[in-house]
Amino acid sequence: MKVDLFPTQIYRYHIDDHQPIKDRIDQHYKEFRVGNEPPDSWNCKLFTTFGTKQFPIVECIDAFSYVFDQFQDEARLPGNLILTDLWLNCYETTNWQDKHIHAPGQWSGIYYGHFDPNEHSGTKFYHPNETLLACQGDEQNTIIPWVNEGDVIIFPAWLEHSAPLNKSSKLRSTISFNFVISDEVYEGGEFDPEKLIVDGGVS
Ligand SMILES: [Fe+2]
């Protein structure tokens, strides 16, 4: 019998009315693409607003609030959700980003602004014990969850991930973000701590 002691979950949601955000990404990218350089510490080739401390596409924050409510309910994480960073990445043909984590951090998310599931790859996640498993002959150490345009995924900030090479002629764009959840009582609804108790576990 196999028992997963420490499984890692990610969460996927969808924003129905995502066209206005996509339009704003187009507008911003067209205006600022020339001369953009990623941080020196990044091993990648892409357009990014990371580190600029500016993010003009505020429309997505309102759109994300629905996602955050769903996430806090599903993950049973009450408290005040505080967005700590938010940035746009655009991947032209042959652009990519090497594996990395979002440290220091608690939770991270990726919104897929321009994304064709028939031509683009989703985000690649790496098993935390990747090297150990590889030494044991297990090479199935990565997972690329299926996503579509307008989707948002949320994952723990410590989980390594990368953006595979964009082999398509179509632009791939994402809005990444980090957030923390404070210990204060979540005002969006009641929280029942008994729901955290796992029934019928293997001891
Ligand atoms: Fe990332």
**What amount of the residues lies in strands?**
25-35%
Q: Going across the biggest sheet, name each strand in turn.
A: 1-9-6-11-4-3
> What is the CATH architecture assignment of the domain at 18-114 and 144-183?
Sandwich
Determine Rg (CA atoms, Å).
Answer: 18 Å
Order of helices and strands: EHEEHEEEEHEEEE
Uncertain segments are 193-203
What hetero molecules are in the model?
A: fe (ii) ion
Overview of this structure, please?
This protein is of the alpha+beta class. The chain has a domain at 18-114 and 144-183: q2cbj1_9rhob like domain (Jelly Rolls, Sandwich), CATH 2.60.120. It has three helices and eleven strands; from the N terminus they run βαββαββββαββββ. It has helices at 19-32, 59-74, 130-135, and strands spanning 11-14, 44-45, 47-48, 81-91, 96-100, 107-114, 124-126, 142-143, 151-156, 161-163, 172-181. Strands 1-9-6-11-4-3 form a six-stranded antiparallel sheet. Strands 2-5-10-7-8 form a five-stranded antiparallel sheet, with no helix packed on it. The longest helix is centred in the first third of the chain and has 16 residues, at 59-74. The chain is globular. The protein starts with 10 loop residues before the first strand and ends in a 22-residue tail after the last strand. The site of fe (ii) ion has 4 residues, from loops.
